[in-house]
Amino acid sequence: MTLNFDPEKAQIYASWSQKIRVMSEFWFSETQFCPACGCYSIKRYENNRPVADFFCENCSEQFELKSKSGRIGRKVADGAYRTMIDRIDGSTNPNFIFLCYDRSSLSVTDLELVPAHFFSTQVIERRKPLGASARRAGWEGCNILMDLLPLSGRITLVKDSCVKKRSDILQAWQRTIFLREQANVATRGWLVSIMACIEHLDKSIFTLNDLYESELQLSAIFPANRNVRPKIRQKLQVLRDRGYLKFLGNGVYQRVL
Question: Which of 56, 123, 192, 207 sits at a 20 to 30 Å CA gap from 137?
Fold first, then answer.
C-alpha cells in the first residue's frame, strides 16, 4: 500500500488547506479497508455533509477524516461544540480517522482510528467563543481530548510510516465493540474513563485499591457524581462480564483485552 499522496488530484486548488484535504481524502478512499468489516468498500459522501466524510458500502460504518502535519497532540480541534455534543447524544457520531502527514514528502506518517463508541461528552472540550470582531462572532468550537481516551480506543493503522497488519486492526476493533451495547452515553463515558484509568496503572494485574487512586481524577471528569467508588466497582463488573477483565478474587483483577 502506498503512503504517498497524489498531487495531481489537487492541482486546481490554490490554498494548501484545500490541497491537503483533497489529497488526503482521495488517498483514504482509494487505499483503506473498513476497520469494522475488513472490506475495501470505503466511499466518499458528497461535499459538506454535516455528519461524516466517508461510509462503508458493506457495513454502513461512517468515518470523519482529520488531517494535520506533524503529530497528534493532547487535543485535536474539531468543529462546532453544540453540533458535536448533539451528535454524541444522538448516537450519530462517526468513527474518527486522524491522519498525520509529512509535507515535504507528501506522504502519510501516522493513521489512527478512534471508534465512535469511545466518544462521550467528557472527552469534548468547549473552546472559548469567537470575539465580537470575528466574522462568526460568538461561534464556539470544540477540542477532542485525546489524553482522556484509553489506548484501546486509539487503533493504529499506520505508525511512523509503517503499515499495521490488517488482521491486528480488525481484531482491535472487535475487542471493544461491546461498548456499543451501552445505549446510555453517560454509562459509556464511565466505562471509557475506567478503561483509561486501568491502562494508566500500567499493570496487567491490579487491585481495586489501585484503581481507587483514580478517584479524584474521575471526580473531576464527572463532577455531578458523589459516589465514585461504587461507580468504579459497578463498571469493573461490566468490564469483567464483557471479557475485558478477569476477576481473580479478593479485589484483584487482570486485564485480558
Answer: 123
Run of H or E including 109? strand 107-114
pTM over 0.85: yes
Helices 228-241/185-201 angle, 10° precision:
90
Domains of the chain: 1-179 (3.40.210.30), 182-257 (1.10.10.10)
Give me the residue label for grid cell 475488513: 38
| Four-residue CA torsion sign, 151, 175, 159, 41 | negative
Sign of the four-CA dihedral 185, 191, 192, 193: positive
C-alpha cell at 7: 498531487
- Report the alpha-carbon distance of residue 44 to residue 257 in Å, rounded: 32
User: SS3 string of 21-52?
Assistant: HHHHHHHHHHHCCCCCCCCCCEEECCCCCCCC
Can you list the pairs that 210-218 forms with residues at least 24 positions away whose Cβ atoms lie under 8 Å? 211/236, 218/193, 218/194
For 141-164, what is each residue's pLDDT tens digit?
999 999 999 999 999 999 999 999
Give the CA distances from residue 181 to residues 3, 42, 84, 188, in Å, rounded to whole numbers and listed in that order.
35, 25, 21, 9
- Helix or strand (DSSP H, E) at 217: helix 215-221
pLDDT tens-digit series, residues 31-56: 999 999 999 999 999 876 666 899 99
Distance CA(143)–CA(13), nearest Å, equals: 28
